[in-house]
């Protein structure tokens, strides 16, 4: 799995951080998503898929391997 985020599209909802805190964080100054790991281990894939699905701005793109 390969993850990309579209930072300008992000609305700082924070749902990704709640769903997959090992993979996503937010910038302190504006809350925009920070990608901590663009290729997480398989054990985290379910959380990452959930994060992408619930992102209110659809700013997270997944490429399955």
How is this fold's topology laid out?
Elements: E1 2-5, H1 15-19, E2 24-26, E3 33-35, H2 45-54, E4 60-63
Antiparallel strand pairs: 1-4, 2-3
Task: Please describe what this structure looks like.
- With 65 residues, the protein is α+β, with helices and mostly antiparallel strands.
- The chain has one domain: Alpha-Beta Plaits.
- 23% of the residues lie in helices and 22% in strands.
- The protein has 2 helices and 4 strands; from the N terminus they run βαββαβ.
- It has a two-stranded antiparallel ribbon. The protein has a two-stranded antiparallel ribbon with strand order 2-3.
Short description:
The protein has 65 residues and is an alpha+beta fold.
Cα end-to-end separation: 5 Å
CATH architecture: 2-Layer Sandwich
The count of domains is 1
Helix content estimate: 10-25%
Question: Which features does this protein show?
Answer:
Alpha-Beta Plaits; two-stranded antiparallel sheet; two-stranded antiparallel ribbon
């Amino acid at each position: 799995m390969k993850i990309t985020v579209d930072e300008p599209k992000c609305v700082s909802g924070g749902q990704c951080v709640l769903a997959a805190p090992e993979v996503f964080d937010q910038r302190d100054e504006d809350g925009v998503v920070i990608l901590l790991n663009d290729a997480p281990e398989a054990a985290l894939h379910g959380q990452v898929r959930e994060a992408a699905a619930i992102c209110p701005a659809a700013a997270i793109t997944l490429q399955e391997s």
